[in-house]
Amino acid sequence: MRDRFFYPLLVLVITGIIALGLLPGIRHTNLNPVDIIAEGYSLNGTDLQKLTAAPGTEISFVDGVGDLPLLAVLSSNNPRRFAPASAGVFGTLGPNYEAGFGGHSLEITITARSGRTKPLDEFKAGYFTVGAGDSGWKNFTLSEDFAEYSFTFKTNPPKGNPGNDFIGIWPGDEGKGETMELKSIRIEVLQ
């Protein structure tokens, strides 16, 4: 193939690959505040791969079996009191979510269970903003079966331009490598 055909074709293929890679995130970034209030936020299935593990925490993924979805396996390898301040294993909600959720009461629901290996007994969860107030860590006791763990938090309206919000989970204060399995995170605006 000649260079004058090869390089334009190569650019098209690379552009297509990048577009396909960005496509899953479009669902969350194009929502306006009215849609966000109505639809809320959810992270489950393959979207769990968008989670980030801060220093002191770890995340791995287990493919679902049969009809079961992908699960995120969370653990901590450093005691929380010695780790740098962070949201643990967290999901990032863009500025459009801070604009939509700002000034509203939210119900945050985490569906999880103790891990199958080195099961964790307790975890913490919190909702964090950049300068608009945080929920602080909420404590939960895990069970062997999947259960919903919920808390409510009233957010403050953003000051100035909205920034990112974060939903975080700290899997075990002691950092002993014990595990929990996360199935989903859901945030709903309470009316």
Overall outline: globular
- What amount of the residues lies in strands? 35-45%
Class from helix and strand fractions: alpha+beta
Name the poorly predicted regions. 24-28
H-E order: HHEEEEEHEEEEEE
Helix content bin: 10-25%
**What composes the largest sheet?**
6 strands, antiparallel
CA distance, first residue to last residue: 62 Å
Number of extended strands: 11
Mean pLDDT: 85
Q: Can you count the helices?
A: 3
Radius of gyration: 19 Å
What would you say about this model in short?
This protein has 191 residues and is of the alpha+beta class.
What does this molecule look like?
The protein has 191 residues and is an alpha+beta fold. 21% of the residues lie in helices and 36% in strands. It has 3 helices and 11 strands, in the order ααβββββαββββββ. It has helices at residues 3-29, 33-39, 95-101, and strands at 41-44, 52-53, 57-62, 71-76, 89-93, 105-114, 122-128, 138-141, 147-154, 165-170, 179-189. The strands form 2 sheets. Strands 1, 3, 4, 6, 9 and 11 form a 6-stranded antiparallel beta sheet that branches. Helix 2 (33-39) packs across helix 3. The radius of gyration is 19 Å and the shape is globular. Residues 24-28 have low confidence and may be disordered.
